[in-house]
Specification:
Six copies of one chain form a homohexamer. With 149 residues, chain A is of the alpha+beta class. Chain A has four helices and six strands. In chain A, a hairpin with a 5-residue loop joins β5 and β6.
Amino acid sequence: MIIEKYLEEYEIGASRMTAGRTITEADIVLHAGQTGDFYPHHVDAQWCATQPFKQRIAHGTLVFSVGIGMTTGVMNPRGMSYGYDRLRFIKPVFIGDTVRVRTTVKETRPHKTPSHGMLVELVEILNQNDQVVIACEHLTIMERKPAES
Amino acid sequence: MIIEKYLEEYEIGASRMTAGRTITEADIVLHAGQTGDFYPHHVDAQWCATQPFKQRIAHGTLVFSVGIGMTTGVMNPRGMSYGYDRLRFIKPVFIGDTVRVRTTVKETRPHKTPSHGMLVELVEILNQNDQVVIACEHLTIMERKPAES
Amino acid sequence: MIIEKYLEEYEIGASRMTAGRTITEADIVLHAGQTGDFYPHHVDAQWCATQPFKQRIAHGTLVFSVGIGMTTGVMNPRGMSYGYDRLRFIKPVFIGDTVRVRTTVKETRPHKTPSHGMLVELVEILNQNDQVVIACEHLTIMERKPAES
Amino acid sequence: MIIEKYLEEYEIGASRMTAGRTITEADIVLHAGQTGDFYPHHVDAQWCATQPFKQRIAHGTLVFSVGIGMTTGVMNPRGMSYGYDRLRFIKPVFIGDTVRVRTTVKETRPHKTPSHGMLVELVEILNQNDQVVIACEHLTIMERKPAES
Amino acid sequence: MIIEKYLEEYEIGASRMTAGRTITEADIVLHAGQTGDFYPHHVDAQWCATQPFKQRIAHGTLVFSVGIGMTTGVMNPRGMSYGYDRLRFIKPVFIGDTVRVRTTVKETRPHKTPSHGMLVELVEILNQNDQVVIACEHLTIMERKPAES
Amino acid sequence: MIIEKYLEEYEIGASRMTAGRTITEADIVLHAGQTGDFYPHHVDAQWCATQPFKQRIAHGTLVFSVGIGMTTGVMNPRGMSYGYDRLRFIKPVFIGDTVRVRTTVKETRPHKTPSHGMLVELVEILNQNDQVVIACEHLTIMERKPAES
């Protein structure tokens, strides 16, 4: 779906939440295969059983990618993704955990191009216990509303 | 492979480079499937042909995940990944581009736990023309070398 | 997204169109792998070159499944999918074709449970030349609007 | 394997049964990824636990595609798949269920081209309790046996 | 399909050929992901262009696994796969090559259990130019025909 | 990583061991899909429950391919893989088993090209109980150390 929105139309503090998705063993297998990251934390259940967390954990890049993917659906042609700040892996995600994503408009910042500004949204990936497992700030370069003449 | 290294053993400015990997149409299909991000920029060749870049582009999270995965291989049990700062999508990656990853030790910072410090490494994903397509700073909490008694 | 809608709220003749998606060689490889259908029409390029269509064609169940998947996004908790009628494979889909899906409300029918009715929607999967490649009728059992007291 | 058979050589009432296949969590993950259908019925175990069926259910298009794929193996160059009628999702398929497919020759019908006819086969996908979970009629346009001169 | 056959019923020199299958870039991507073998010979098109073969080559284990998989379809409950001898990688397989598999009964050998013997079949994987790309000998422990009393 | 080594530099009896990897249901599903081998031993849990081993077993080609993949990481440009001898499937691998691979230099043999020789390494894939599940001999054609002048 396409929804056009200018920078000024984002309300600081407004937040939205996605539906949920369960992280499966298959997701970890596929992500190891896509990235080549076969660290034992993700693919060796026997070794993990000897570690503090006792079981395999999902790759940080898997949960981050899935979480960002879950926020898609609505395209705003007035914005262009610029990057992420303060991406933090706060808690491990285990096989069978169910994640949802909350996106909150945090602030807007000026941009060197006066017709545009930077939209900063806090993206929080939550598990089934409402604990934040990953947080980051998503930066989008957005058009400002043209002055009406 | 396991190589134990304390914070003090990382030399500022030292860098290492991975082998290369070609980003394929299959990678994009698999990443769309893993994340649920089916935005037309990634999966609709016909629409892309009408856009400035003329062709499908790889998901930012795909290239980031693959790039981070390419840096794996050596585990240092003295460190724990903390997160990423300043993750920036600088240039698009197209089907058939070949990426490599350069990691450079940027700086070390104090940590609230005196026995540890923060290692900051600049991670740059390059394409076949040596252009940086993604850059970010990887933060790792590392043990300091114990004082010899 | 959840949008509650009763049977009476569907307008006969109303139609909606999805974004597009390019069917890739990787999709065919994955679908052969998921279903076990390795017929040479789908996986043997050499043999296909000797046939009238000259190239590999996507599985009918692949294009049908992808097309139905493309129509998802909005859930209506007042309806439950009942089945499909008149599923027809009208034109072959080749690697590189881009499909979109048009859904048109065709009719409503009574249901043995008086509080419900059957919604019939025509689902047409189109290629990049606006040719219908697959058509079918989707049947959904929908709640009728409760009489206001 | 190739077995040539004309329309007249199909015996009404004859049926054949495939071997079995267990539907796994990985199948659902892969099908969600192939189709983009991430409805919570299929991918959110936490939400499903609050619903009448208590657990994730396989996509209808997954079980249909796998079932049709299971019937492949023998190619009859005298026939061409035309479509499906009365495709019905009768019972949910859960992770761990094992399906088999029974195909029964139901009837033959005339075709506008006199040298051909329509073969109608009832396709029933059964679970491990011999319950039909999906049923449909498969229509194939078949050559009639040429009159011997 | 199940076909029961005793050791004596295999005729030395008899051979059978499978249908064909095109090895795709997606197959290589999936096999790299399944095995973790991301050697540049398979995944770095830029580096391969500097090598004698000029292009990516399929993993030996990919072509071997696909070839063995292509010979499946008929199960003989009287035999049990024992292993492979003289597995040789004779020619590279490139993206787009189409392989078929020829299996020839080579010999039978005694087994320490007198009621059984070893069946040796030559398995040859051919490309579209009828060149053998992989050859091996498949060993199966087979029941001998029980003496009729 | 690239490590150049001549035939003479391999020490008979030297061995190395990989990290571990758990074989998952998803691996079996993906391997069935890649190879087309949907034998009930691998994909029909219900039938397997009636057999001596009681559960699904991993494809021999899956465990072999994964095991070989686990030994990758270091490339020696002085050697070229020639093939495998005495590949034996010794014990079944079940879903959830964790495998590691031990490679032992077994012997060197002359080669028709005097500047080269054949390196024979014993490859043993072990499960979590240190049982060898697959063994084979890997043959590599290696350059001999050039005589110093």
